[in-house]
Specification:
By secondary structure, the chain is of the alpha+beta class. Helices cover 36% and strands 14% of the residues. A 3-stranded antiparallel sheet has the order 1-2-3. The longest helix is centred in the last third of the chain and has 11 residues, at 57-67.
């Protein structure tokens, strides 16, 4: 799987996918600028998704790496309804 397999979608859709994978929105902290911050208990990383109509695939790939999941897992969860 490569970058071209990752979906182009809004920040909200990507955040919803990470939420289904166990991440929660961090409403107490504010990021610099306009970002959605996601945290997960037991994971040191904080995911920061820029609020855009189409988030770049390179950004999503970095978030997937930081989340400790595979692109295949992410794509499967993204396409679930």
């Amino acid at each position: 799987m490569g970058l071209s397999d990752l979906p182009l979608a809004s920040a909200e859709k990507h955040a919803a996918c990470f939420e289904r994978l166990g991440w929660t929105r961090d409403l107490k902290r504010r990021g610099r600028g306009v970002h959605i911050l996601l945290t997960k208990p037991g994971v040191r990383a904080t995911l920061s998704i820029p609020i855009q109509r189409e988030v770049k695939r390179t950004i999503i790939a970095g978030l997937i790496r930081a989340a400790g999941i595979t692109q295949e897992q992410y794509i499967a969860e993204f396409h679930k309804k």
